[in-house]
Design goal:
By secondary structure, the chain is of the alpha+beta class. The chain has one domain: Orthogonal Bundle (Cytochrome p450), CATH 1.10.630.10. Helices cover 49% and strands 9% of the residues. The strands form 3 sheets. Strands 1-2-3-8-5 form a 5-stranded mixed sheet. A 3-stranded antiparallel sheet has the order 4-10-9. Strand 2 and strand 3 form a beta hairpin. Helix 7 packs antiparallel against helix 8. The longest helix has 32 residues. It is globular, with a radius of gyration of 21 Å. The C terminus is likely disordered.
Length: 409
């Protein structure tokens, strides 16, 4: 990799349409490390070799996640700065700060009642399916998966309806391309209300545990952790479920097998986590000083981005049969590995199973026959997932003890 080599624009629509073709070309040309551009004028190095990624992820001393030195060189209006800038959370910290934040967020996630969460997903899925089951068609992104995962996150955080309504409206506006700055401000105000409420009325939820944890997070730190749960919980979970449904509806290995019981939705989830992980390029680190790796000098304080999608498909480790194989990097590894894997698996599998049980004859209905992916350097996300199915009567609903916060669409 030469410093004068042209950088691959990960932000382009062409990359979003077929990233695996780009990964193959980069691997052929550069090996395990490729020069890329995260946004116009924002250089980075993309790690596309599995063993190299493992080395980087297990070496936080040389590859810390703290972006503060880097972001001083980035224009304030850079479109990716809000996502990557420093926040008082574990995934943006190093050293003792990382340990403190990591202990708090891990403890709060460990407190989640998985049995209750299973019931919550079912209680959410059935009424959502009932809103479109009689029409014979739906966009599963906006009519099913997005509202479901949003309400799941509200449940996990213990967010009451009046505050969840504010977050929902702002999140939906941002999701649909409206004013991001106003949306961020509205979400910040809503989360401040949530933290204040939970200090007065704690419950068994992530927000309350963060507040009560021995790390003694202040209100700003708690708010940022709650914001991270919203961001990662919605974006990752949404894309994981939608991408898996796309696989099931387009690949005969899974479509017939999942519906007939030969393969489980868990097998389909793991196939997606290998091939099209919801966050395809993330786990970003910033070397403290220039460092030589794989005979390439990486500059200090420039992003080193792990491509989970490319590394999972590295020919050096890739196997033909992925059934039951969970050695992918979609959850990360090392100190920054995702602490919410069990939650994410449970929600995704239950959401998919509820839909397929209710509408077993569901079929993809793409107008042009090709999925449309949202451009962006980090995610692997469909814009829509239109489907058709024989109209069916509404399912029976079970009364629930909690109240929905998402506005009707």
């Amino acid at each position: 990799m030469d410093s004068n080599d042209p950088r691959v624009p990960l932000h382009s629509a062409e990359f979003a349409a077929d990233p695996h073709a780009f990964y193959r070309e980069m691997r052929s040309r550069y090996g395990s490390l490729a020069p890329v551009e995260l946004a116009p004028g924002v250089p980075a190095t993309l790690v596309i070799g599995y063993s190299t990624a493992v080395r980087v992820l297990n070496d936080p001393e040389h590859f810390p996640a703290d972006p503060r030195t880097w972001q001083q060189t980035i224009p304030a209006d850079c479109p990716i700065l809000p996502l990557l800038e420093w926040r008082p959370i574990a995934s943006r910290s190093a050293g003792t700060d990382f340990v403190r934040y990591r202990q708090a967020i891990t403890a709060s996630i460990d407190e989640v009642d998985l049995y209750a969460l299973h019931d919550i997903v079912q209680d959410l899925a059935v009424p959502l399916i009932n809103t479109f089951c009689e029409t014979g068609s739906a966009d599963l992104v906006m009519q099913y998966v997005f509202p479901l995962v949003f309400e799941v996150v509200n449940f996990l955080l213990g967010c009451p309806p009046e505050i969840g309504q504010q977050v929902a409206a702002a999140t939906a506006a941002m999701f649909e391309g409206a004013d991001a700055e106003q949306g961020n401000q509205t979400i910040g105000e809503a989360l401040t209300k949530l933290v204040t409420l939970k200090r007065i009325e704690p419950r068994r939820d992530i927000t309350s545990v963060l507040i009560q944890h021995p790390a003694r997070l202040d209100d700003v730190e708690v708010s940022h952790h709650v914001s991270q749960v919203y961001g990662a919980g919605i974006e990752f979970q949404l894309n994981l479920i939608v991408n898996t449904l796309l696989l099931i509806l387009t690949d005969d290995r899974f479509g017939g097998s999942v519906l007939s019981g030969n393969l489980s939705s868990r097998d389909a989830l793991d196939e997606v986590l290998f091939n099209d992980p919801p966050l395809a390029n993330l786990l970003i680190t910033y070397p403290r000083q220039p460092i030589l790796i794989d005979e390439i000098w990486l500059p200090a304080h420039q992003p080193v981005v792990i491509s989970m999608a490319a590394c999972n498909n590295d020919p050096a480790i890739r196997a033909d049969d992925l059934t039951g194989n969970r050695s992918h990097l979609a959850w990360g590894i090392g100190p920054h590995a995702c602490p919410a894997q069990s939650l994410a698996y449970l929600v995704a599998q239950d959401a998919i199973d509820q839909l397929l049980d209710a509408l077993p004859e569901i079929h993809l209905n793409l107008p042009d026959g090709t999925p449309v992916w949202r451009p962006g350097p980090f995610h692997r996300a469909l814009t829509t997932l239109p489907v058709t199915f024989p109209p069916t009567s509404p399912l029976n609903t079970v009364p629930s003890s909690w109240t929905s916060t998402l506005p009707a669409r």
